[in-house]
Write a structure and sequence with these properties.
single chain; alpha/beta; seven-stranded parallel beta sheet; five-stranded parallel beta sheet; 16 helices; 12 strands
Length: 414
Amino acid sequence: MRVVIMTAGSRGDVAPYTGLGAGLAHGGHGVTLATHGLFEPLVAGSEVRFHPTPVDPHAVSHSDRGRDLHASTSGPGKLLRAVSMARSAAEEMTDALVEAARGADVVLAAGAVAPLGRAIAEGLSLPSLGLFLQPQHPTREFGAPMLGGRSLGAVGNHLGGRAVISAVDRVFTHAVHRLRTRHGMALRGPSAGRRAHERARWPVLHGFSERVVPRPKDWRPGLEVAGYWWPHDARALPGDVEEFLSAGPPPVFVGLGSATVPDAGHLSAEIVRALRTAGLRGIIQQGWAGLAAHGDDDVITVGDLPHALLFPRTAAVVHHAGAGTTAAVLRAGVPTVPVPVQFDGGFWAARLVALGTAPRAVPLRGLTAAALAPALRRATSDPHHRDRAQELARGLAEEDGVAPVLAALDRLTS
């Protein structure tokens, strides 16, 4: 079967689908990943084909509009700014996604592009299902992850989830109009299309473990938790990193992934000061934030590295609590200090604290040496956090997140 996986966003929104795609290819399917062109190297060495789409998310995040996200201090404020920013990007990607789907038998749509993927599949009379990395459907059990995850009570949580769904629909209004006018597809608007698919119980599989987020009891049938999809990554660690790891005790990894920060120089200095105060060595990942440490023997700066090889060799991981990095930390079985930046970061950070793998979260706005150093001490010295992290990692190693997707494909096309 020819399968196209559609996604968009940062590296963390793409990498899990490389591993899932490789698993589906191993299961006998022909798989194409359709996403931003700069992520083509992520499928190198796998059996997954790549179909590039326009828009450079790195450039978008560093644009004036991308940096304006830091001006919002609330989850709803950030979401509204993000919706405005994403509308033009969604429309720009539409033609390439249609082209990718025309060569497929089934469309698998990531949460970041679910309304558009569903619409394209419907317009081409193809079956489809969703592949989400975060819980997106409303529930009374926890606050909407894309609003930070703070609980507003049962009713407030559900209303917040509905508000997020409505906001996401707005992202794709122009894109669906383009499908009608440029590609001749007879389609409903995003909101009407979503309601119809919900009534039909459109299947969605979630790429996280029930050990981390149990399936909400008030979700409708068709919304399932599959387990994690581990990224494909054939790289080895660079020689200088291997030398640093061998030269002393396990270091702390600090990286904010694709998140940007208002002042990278100031933040880098605070991180280095926190590491030294806690008496720890460090590996600082430059990332999209541009973090760096200069002239230090006990702290090095690195570029993009394979998390699966590095994280298990660290004393702890400090990260932005994106879905992908959170998964990598849990897989590694090491303590963590989450630094939520925006959107679902607060949700995953709270989960890590509740699971016992993190002593506390240190939000970006409060990330100073005085706040980070004691959190690092607790994460690295309290055996409870490492024991709990290793226990979870052993459980996750027993799960197979690809198998439920293979089964769903069989049901979808039978």
